[in-house]
Amino acid sequence: MSALPPEPSEPEARDLLGVRYPNTARVWNYHLRGKDNFEADRQAAEAVNVLFREMGVPSASDTAVETRHLLQRMVDYMLGQGVRQFLDLGSGLPNMANTHQIARRTAPEARIVYVDIDPMVSSHASALMAGSNVITLQADLREPEQVLSSPQVRDLLDFGQPVGIIFICMLHCLWDREDPWGVVRQFRDAVAPGSYLGLSHMTDETHEQAAQAVFQMTQDLHWNTPLISRSRADIARYFDGFTLVEPGLVTPSQWRPELHKPLRDPRGDDDDDAPVLKLIVAEPSQDDRSTWNLCGVGVKDQL
C-alpha cells in the first residue's frame, strides 16, 4: 500500500462536533479501555476487532496495549542514553502511562512537549498532563514549522541538545501525498546530532489482506484519518539520517523486551478514587502477536 491511496470519501453531512464519525484518537482510546470516546468510535473499534477475529489476526486492542508497553521501553532507552527532553508527536488522548510519567520516574527534570492536531486531545492533555516542564500544543504535524517555531516549544526545549522524537502509531495516519517521510525529515533537521527517533508504524508485511481491509473500513466509515500499512522498505525510509540501534526494525514485542518495567497504579483499577490517567498494569504477551507494526529507534548521525 505504498502507492498513492485513493482520495478519501467525504461524509454525507458536516459533523461540526466530530462525534458522528469515528476519530482515530478516540478509537485508540477505546482500545486502551479509556472513556474519552463516543458511540461511533466504539462501534468502529468493535467492527475492527470482529474483522480481525474473523481473519485470525491480532486484535487491535491487544496491539494498542502492547504499543503502550513499547512507548515505555523506548522512552526508558532514550533516558539511558542521556536524553532529557522529548517531543511526543501525535500523542493522542492521555491514557495508561504517558511519556512524562515514564520519563520522570528516572529523570524528574525531564521536559516533554505533547503535540496533536485534535482539539479534544489538546484540551484533555492540557487538563490531565499539566505540570512543570510539560506542555501540550495543538498543531498540524503535516506542517512541522507550526511546532518548531512555537514560542512555547522553543522556550522549553533546547534544540542544541539531544531530543527524543516520538511518533507512536501516528505516521500511518498520513497519506503518501502528505509526505510523512518529509515530515520526519524536517523534525530530524531541527534537532542536534545524538537525538533519537522512535516510531511504530502499521505494516502490510504479514497480514496484507487484513491491512487492506482495515484501510477500506476507515474509508467506508468516514474515519477522520486513514490507516495506511506500509512496507518494511517504506518504514525504513523514516530513518534516513539516523542509525538504527539494535535490534533494528522489528515487531514491538521484539524491541528490547528486557527493558520492560511498566508503571503501575498502586490503588488498582477498582478504586473509585483512581486517577483518570490509567497506568499500565498488564504484563506483555509472551508470543509475537504485534505483527501489525514495525518499530525502531534511531540516533541522528553526526554532521
First-last Cα distance: 33 Å
Corresponding CATH superfamily: Vaccinia Virus protein VP39
Low-confidence region ranges: 1-13, 271-277
Return the string of H and E elements.
Answer: HHHEHEHEHHEHEHHEE
Task: Assign an overall shape.
Answer: globular
CATH architecture: 3-Layer(aba) Sandwich
Number of helices: 10
Please report the first level of CATH classification, the CATH class.
Alpha Beta
Question: What is the average of the pLDDT values?
Answer: 84
| Rg result | 18 Å
The proportion of strand residues reads 5-15%
Strand order, sheet with most strands: 3-2-1-4-5-7-6
Question: Helix fraction?
Answer: 25-40%
In quaternary terms, these chains amount to single chain
Whole-number tally of structural domains = 1
The number of E-state strands comes to 7
Kindly name the structural category: alpha/beta
The CATH topology is: Rossmann fold
Largest sheet: 7 strands, mixed
Folded structure, characterized:
There is one protein chain. With 303 residues, the protein is α/β, with parallel strands linked by helices. The protein has a single domain (69-207, 224-300), classed as Rossmann fold (3-Layer(aba) Sandwich). The protein contains ten helices and seven strands. The protein has helices at residues 24-31, 39-55, 60-80, 99-104, 119-128, 145-148, 151-156, 180-190, 208-220, 232-236; strands spanning 85-89, 111-116, 134-138, 164-168, 196-202, 242-244, 293-300. Helix 5 (119-128) links the parallel strand 2 (111-116) and strand 3. Helix 1 crosses helix 2. The radius of gyration is 18 Å and the shape is globular.
